Every structure is written in structure tokens, then in C-alpha cells.
Amino acid sequence: MLLKLRLEAQKMSDISRRAFLTRAGALALGFSFPLFSGKAQDSQSSLKFKNSTDDDNRKSSLEYHNAYIEITPSNEVVFRIPDIELGQGIYTAAAMLLAEELEVELSAVKVRPALPSPEYILKGELTEITWGSGSTQKDWFPLQQAAATLRIMLIESAAQFWRINPDQCYTQKGQIYGPDNRQSPYSQFLVPADKLSIPKDIILKKKEAYSLIGKSQPRVDTPSKINGKAIFAADISLPAIKTGYMIACPVVGGKLVRIHDQQARQVQGVVDILSLEDMVCIIAEHFWAASKAAKLLKIEWDFGPNGMTSTDSIYKQLIQASDQKGIVGYSNSSVKIETALAATSHVYKMTYRQPMLAHAALEALSCTIEINDNHCEIWSCSQTPLRTQDRIAELLKRDKKDIIFHNVYVGGSFGRRLDDDYILQAVKFAQKISYPLKCVWSREEDFLQDHVRPPYLDQIEVGVGADGLLTTVKHNLVGPSIMARWDKSQLTKEGMDPDLFLGINTIPYEIPHYQLNYTRCDIDAIIPGWWQGNGATRNVFVIESIINKCAVKAKKDVIEYRKQLKVDARATAVMDLVAQHAQWDQPLSKDIGRGFALAHVFNSYIAMVVEAEVTAMSVVRLHRVIVAVDCGLAVNPDQIAAQIESSAIIGLGSALYNEVQLEQGKIVQRNFNQYRILHMNEAPQIEVHIIKSDEAPSGVGELGTIVAAPALAHALGSILNKQLYSLPLNKYLL
Predict the structure, then answer these.
(1) Is the backbone peptide bond immediately before 728 cis, with ω within 30 degrees of 0?
(2) Torsion over CA: 112, 113, 116, 118 (sign)
(3) Per residue in 665-715, pLDDT tens?
(4) pTM for this one?
(5) How many CA atoms lie within 13 A of 731 on its CB side?
(6) Cα dihedral across residues 558, 560, 566, 569: positive or negative
(7) By CB neighbour count within 10 A (0-12 exposed, 13-18 middle, 19+ buried), where does 193 fall?
(8) How far, in Å, CA of 565 to CA of 506, rounded?
(9) Which letter does DSSP use for residue 512 in this model?
(10) Burial class (CB in 10 A: 0-12, 13-18, 19+), 397
(11) Beta carbons within 10 angstroms of residue 324's beta carbon
(12) Beta bridge partners of 348
């Protein structure tokens, strides 16, 4: 019966969320058609097109092993996308890329989440993954190529049917046109096209012929998110499903001692209370019964050795570790860094302290799961779905093909869903029962169980020449390695985590001698996780703050100072553009500070100017943020601007207010009343200016966050007349 419902779900895509919730799970597995058999379906009603990896015309090393496109009898184009839609708009960008080369209207393309498959692993990638502002970068060439190839095959099919030369045919809006007013939709030629060989020579559209790419388009998922049809993990409903309210030990490494659950079990609607060695799950008919029972549940924990850890003790551990000799994680210098420093005219020393940060996504963690004799089926979100599928199969000791994982819409991630601990926890409880289980984490539990961005100390020595220009940086970094926890095989042979020099290895300046030394210092009381912008957010704060300090010491304008460090042409262009729109040469009111930052990361360039004020009540008022970005060819300009605006808001709020603190091993901040974000009335006016470029599209989603902290620190430092070395910045105002 469930299989029938799942097959019917594809035909019921217009059902409302209300109908979905009341129709016994009609849409429960609407995303689960098996598309990865490695060949087109035999059905004559549709054509599945598989892009060849042996295509001689392929020029990109970033490619899907196979890209699947389906054209339906109604002439719709369905693309099963491996990228996770986290709010960044990749469904729209992918639809635009396909529609452009396939010559169909954007509304004709329906993007659906793909099931995990090794065929979607990019060359050079560890696994199928969505991260690092990389979706459009990696989709750009393979999706264009796949769409163009299919279009050529359809033209060939039509030409054979009409018995004419393919050169006499052309395509427009999903139709094939030939001489003598011949016209037919693509769907008329699917079966013949399936029997054609894949062409080797593919000529893509010239950029000047684009009708969609480069022109702002509305997001394809906006209507469903407004009218309630978009399906998130917590929306899934199956026959006999129960809700599992998750409670874990609040201290990392702690264990469950005993549960006093007599009162909790008496709450109407409570079905059962289950436990693992470090977790409890209250199972009820609905969330409210479970949450009521949670308030009556008394749990005794053994917090273990981490039960006395505090924020202060963590930083003491980092400081102690800084005395140890680290490894050279990155160096561009041909001489010893100490020799290079000794040859400079002056050396500045400084220490930067960067705090732990929460992901604090709008949607708290959730996962729906059903386990039976035939399969284990999950609805949630994992940025590494294939890895998650493998781990579930190992946990359940089942064949991987029996693990069906559905990535549904998710309300933000910021790196949290690169880890799948919450999904594995749900599986452990679900295997104890005989009915489907929807596991939910309260907002407070989501904060408590977060894999926080770890804390770091950056000890810096910089040398400048007689002209005040920066020539040498000795950068000692102390802190945990996320990759060492996640997958040790990805460390360098010296033990360096590649994420820790992200943003340093692409500095847009000519700094002759830069050496990053890394001392690994694991913090047992936290689980370190990637955060917005990955390592670049942390590194760019340090690098840009150093350069701003050196410019001030040299009594030079910070933008002109950077130009004297021989930035490349693209970096110069974004600096000039942001300076123009910020009216950089015009003085501001004495009460307003102006800050600047530049970054080259994810193959993009971004420059930001922040104008801020500190009021008489020591409150920061953000006035304007001006951004110039060169992200290659702008696929969807409005969406790029929206991504820069939102990431800037995240970056500014985090730089100003955010820090995760520990007391007695527990995270103190457990909701947004304790973990401060910018309010709507605090948001500055933001201007985003996009450089016109013929370069391939590059990363966008996290750029605003990466430069926000150094730009704001520079602005506030100019008001306070001091260098600001630690985050969050509001500490300097207390």
C-alpha cells in the first residue's frame, strides 16, 4: 500500500500541505522514484537522458558522472538534482541552466531532489556533497552540456522523422521547428531520441544569445514555500506515525544514569519513553503531548570529565597549547619565516581570539524514519547524503540498496547538516519500534546539541618594509581540526586540515612571505563543526584586520594600501566599484566610522564597506553596507544580491553579538533570547553591485559573512581609536 501511495505521490504534486497532512501520507515518498539504474527507462512515455562521462567535448574536471534529465509526455522537463536546497536558490539556478540550453521556458523545468548516488560524486570530491558555495560552480558546465546534448538529439530525432537535414531544424520554447511550418513538441520525439547515439561535438550557446542566464528570474520554489506545498522533514505524515521528542545529555561524553518517568508516562498521548546510553526519546501521538511529558521527565546524567569545562578553561587550554611546536600548514616563502621577519623594518605582534559559534538555523533538526523488513526509509536533510546512507546501512547491518534517503527542503544549515548525528540517533530509536517515527529536536535541544564552530587563537607577527608595506606574516593558529574528526584521510601527510588555510591560500595580495603554523588542540567538551564560510570566515577576519592595521600605521588609505600590495585586476575592480558607490573619498560625520574588507575565496572576489555608529548609550547602529562582487558570470543577479545581503546580515550579527559559552560543560545559549541576532530594525541599508564578467560562475552564498567581521571591526575601531582583536565586538562596548 505504501508503494502505491509513493507512486501516486508524483501525480499529486499540486496537493496542499493541509491535504497532505490529512491524506494519510499521500506525498510521503513522492520524491523516491529510482532514477539511478544507469540506463533510460524502457517506458515509451518518457525519456531519461544520461550524460556520458566519455564525451570528448567535456572540458571541466568538475563533472557529474551522469546528469539525468527527464522529459514527460506533457513536455515538462524534470531534473533530479543532487544539490541540497538549503535556501541558497540552487533549484532556480539549475533550472535556468537547463532551460537555457534545452530551449524551454523556465516554468517548464521541474527540479526535484535526487536520491543519493555515487554517479553524482564530482571528480576530486570525497563524496556527494553540498557545501562551500559550490553548487552553481559545479553545475554550470555539466548541466549546460547535458541539456545541449539532449537538445541536439531531439533535433536529430525530429529530422529523421521528417526526413530532412538537422540543419533545417531549430528549437524554441520546447518545440522543434522545421521547414513548411512543421512544428512539434519535444515529447513527440522521445522514443526515437532514446535510440540515437550521444553526439560527441557539443556547441554551447554563446553568452550574447542567453535569454535567461544573466537576467534576474523569480525563484522556482517561492510559490510552494508561500502556499505551504513545500515539504520539509517535519511535514511528513505516514500511517500510524508517532512523534519522537529528542533529549540528549547536555554535556559531550556524558551518559544516562536513570530516568524517572512515572509522571511523564501518564500524559495523555504518550506512547513510550525509550533511551540510549546518552539520549532519551519521548514517543507520543503528537509533539505537544511529547513536549508536555518532557517537562515532567526527570533524568539523571553522569556528565563525566567534561562536566567542569567552561569557556575560560577552553581558552586556557588553547593558550597552553600555543607553547607547543606546530606544523607548517601553509607557506609561500622560500626562506625561513624568522629570517624574513628579521629583514623587515618593523614587526608588529598581535593575538586574535575567535569564539565558538552556533549554527542557529531557522528550522531546528528533524527526521522522519520508517524501518520494516524490506527497507529503511528516511526523510531529512544531509549535505552528504551518500555518506549518511552508508553510515545508516552500517548501523543497521543492511545492504545499502535497502536504505532510501530523501533530502527534502530545509530551513537553513550553515554547515550543521554536514554532520548526520541526528539522523543516526533517529535510526537507533526507530529500530526499537514497529511504526514510523518523526523525531524532532526543540529549539533548546538544537542549540544544546549543536556542533559548534570551534574557538581559535591566532598569534600573529607581521613585518613591514621601510615604506610601511606588509612583506611578511608569521601566523600561528591554535585550535581543533574539524576534518580530523570527520575524516582523517583528508588531512595532509603532515596532519594539516585543508579548511584551516582556506582564504589564506587565495590571498589577492602579493605578500612575499606568509607562513601558517598550526597547533592542533582538540577540545573534548565540544564537537567541532563547519560554520558559514568554512575556514575562510575565520582567516579573512585575521588577514584583513592585519592589513587595515598596517595601513593605519603607515598612515595610508586602506584601499590604496591594498593596491600597493599588487592586487590583481579583478580585486582592483571590486575595490574601485565599492569605493565609487560608497563615496569613499567623501568624509563622513565624525560620529560614523567606515570599515573596509576584501576577500578572494570560492573563486569569487568581494569588497565590503560598512558604515556604523556607536551611540552615547554604547549601542552600535549600522547605517550602510556597500558591496561589490565579482562572482564570474552572474546566473541570476537578483538571487546573488539576496545571498550577499542575507550572508552580510548573518556575518554582521555574529561579529557583533555571537558567542557560544560553556558552563559546567553545557552550552549556555539555548534560544534566540540568549543568542543574539540582528533585528529587522537594526538591519542596515545594503547595496550590492555585481561586476559584469565572462568568467565561469563562482561561489556566492557565504561571501557576505566572510568579509563582514573585518569590515565592521575596522569601522568600530576607527570610532574607538583602537584595534579590535577579538570577537564578538560588542565586548569592546560593555
Answers:
(1) yes
(2) positive
(3) 999 999 999 999 999 999 999 999 999 999 999 999 999 999 999 999 999
(4) 0.90
(5) 13
(6) positive
(7) buried
(8) 14
(9) S
(10) exposed
(11) 10
(12) 462
State the Cα–Cα distance between residues 27 and 19, nearest whole angstrom: 10
**Which of 11, 218, 183, 227 lies closest to 107, judged by CA?**
218
Contact 439, 431 (CB under 8 A): no
- Nearest CA to 159 out of 167, 171, 149, 147 is that of 167
User: Within a 10 A sphere around the Cβ of 345, how many other Cβ atoms?
Assistant: 12
What is the pLDDT averaged over residues 38-61? 32
Pick 502 or 199 by higher pLDDT: 502
- State the residue for C-alpha cell 540510549: 276
**Could you tell me the three cell numbers for 363?**
528550522
Closest CA to 30 of 436, 439, 408: 408
Residue 194, SS3 per DSSP = helix
**Under DSSP, is residue 315 helix (H, G, I), strand (E, B) or coil?**
helix
Helix residue ranges per DSSP H, 218-301: 222-227, 262-265, 287-296
CA distances (Å), origin 108, targets 78, 98, 194, 694:
8, 10, 21, 27
Residue 550 to residue 558: CA distance in whole angstroms = 9
Q: Collapsing DSSP states into helix, strand and coil, what is residue 336?
A: coil
**Cα distance between residue 83 and residue 90, in whole Å:** 7
In 3D space, the residue among 617, 647, 626 whose CA is nearest the CA of residue 730 turns out to be 617
CA angle 461-467-469, nearest 5°?
45
Residue 626: other Cβ atoms inside 10 A: 26
pLDDT value for 126: 79
Burial of 683 (0-12, 13-18, 19+ CB in 10 A): middle
The pLDDT, as a whole number, for residue 195 is: 80
Average confidence (pLDDT) over 536-564: 98
- Local structure of 606: helix, strand or coil: strand
Q: First vs last Cα of the chain: how many Å apart? A: 62
* Residues 706/710/711/717 CA torsion (nearest 10 deg): 160
What's the pLDDT tens digit per position in 413-450? 999 999 999 999 999 999 999 999 999 999 999 999 99
Other CB atoms within 10 A of residue 258 CB: 10
Nearest to 594 by CA among 605, 603, 583: 583
Contact 704, 648 (CB under 8 A): yes
Distance of CA 680 to the CA centre of its chain: 23
Distance CA 280, CA 383 (A): 26
Is residue 278 classed as helix, strand or coil in its secondary structure? coil
Q: Kindly report the length of the chain.
A: 734
Q: Does the structure show a pLDDT above 70 at 17?
A: no
Apex CA 275: angle with CA 273 and CA 281, to 5°? 50
- Residues 420 and 183: their CA atoms lie apart, in Å, by 50
Q: Which amino acid is at 708?
A: A
Share of the chain above pLDDT 90, in %: 85
74 close to 190: Cβ distance less than 8 angstroms: no
Residues 217, 96: Cα–Cα separation, whole Å? 8
Rounded to whole angstroms, the Cα distance separating 356 from 365 reads 20
Band of the pLDDT at 734, cuts 50, 70, 90?
Answer: confident
Contact indicator for 444, 670 with CB cutoff of 8 Å = yes
Q: What whole-number distance in Å separates Cα of residue 177 and Cα of residue 586?
A: 58
Residue 321 and residue 308: Cα distance in Å, rounded? Answer: 19
**What is the Cα–Cα distance from 476 to 28, expressed in whole angstroms?**
51
Asked if 131 and 37 count as a contact pair (C-beta separation under 8 A), the reply is no
Reply yes or no on whether the pLDDT at 60 is more than 80. no
pLDDT band at 67 (very low <50, low <70, confident <90, very high): low
Q: pLDDT per residue over 261-282, tens digit each? A: 999 999 999 999 999 999 999 9
Residue 476: how many other CB atoms lie within 10 Å: 18
Distance between CA atoms of residues 208 and 544, nearest Å: 37
